[in-house]
Amino acid sequence: MRITIVGCGSIGSKLAMAADEMADVKRIYLTDMELSLAENLAAKLKKAIVVEDVEEELYHCDLVIEAASQDAARQILPTVVSRGVDIMIMSVGALVDDGFREMVQTKAKECEARIYIPSGAVCGTDGLRSSAIGDLKEVELITTKGPKSLSGVQTLIEHGVDVNAIAEPTVIFSGTARDAVKQFPKNINVAATVSLLGVGFDRTKVSIVVDPNSKSNSHELRIKGEFGEMTCHTYNVPSPDNPKTSYLASMSAISALKRIVRNEWIGI
Ligand SMILES: NC(=O)c1ccc[n+]([C@@H]2O[C@H](COP(=O)([O-])OP(=O)(O)OC[C@H]3O[C@@H](n4cnc5c(N)ncnc54)[C@H](O)[C@@H]3O)[C@@H](O)[C@H]2O)c1
Question: Which domains does the chain have, with CATH numbers?
Fold first, then answer.
């Protein structure tokens, strides 16, 4: 299998290192808007070469993995699936726009391209997926992060919220997953994944809490429905190279790639 990784940051670089050791991965194309990041990463790997953009080697590629940003995902998704190439998306929030998502899903079906969305930084997606076969009454996600993981968020800056000045656990957002994903595009991709699996962006409730003493990025997923009730709480270690990203998100991308290359689906 030949793969292209778009984005050589925290997730992309861990994924590329793991892919380099996978016998079934024969070639890794790397690209990043900062090409030097792709070049530095390629220099550490056996199977990698740098490409200027995703289209350069798309003809030779079996799977594109986006690990860059919502903008990048919006840009490359239609191009990749229209060429019949499979794609894995980490910036899941890019699918919040219903018209865009439906267009991409239709194109992917027409062109026989698969869209893979790993569970990312949240646990409980297996139970949510199964329970959504029946009626779901309530899906709620409560995310708690330390100030470092929420620094530089535009909507907070515009509303004069200084996360570093918060002295005790404080809810800084409460609303729909649709609004959460739009207002926190780099911080709450899990809300998009949960919405896509469960009751959609408008019925999924999200709260974001800043806890000055928190050492983890935690996600508490609460589900009530015909199946019964489920609560799944994940306490994630933030990645040292990007505190906004949980280490588990990189692991979920690596684990998804392993399942794809082996064509082996356990616990799906
Ligand atoms: N699904 C999940 O649960 C989950 C969890 C954590 C992070 N994420 C998302 O995954 C993505 C990657 O996360 P990360 O921690 O590796 O981020 P990062 O900031 O460490 O790395 C992103 C890299 O992508 C590059 N990039 C940005 N826009 C680009 C573009 N248009 N074209 C090419 N390269 C581009 C940047 O230069 C950077 O090197 C982010 O969008 C993040 O929000 C998803």
Answer: 2-117+248-262 (3.40.50.720), 125-236 (3.30.360.10)
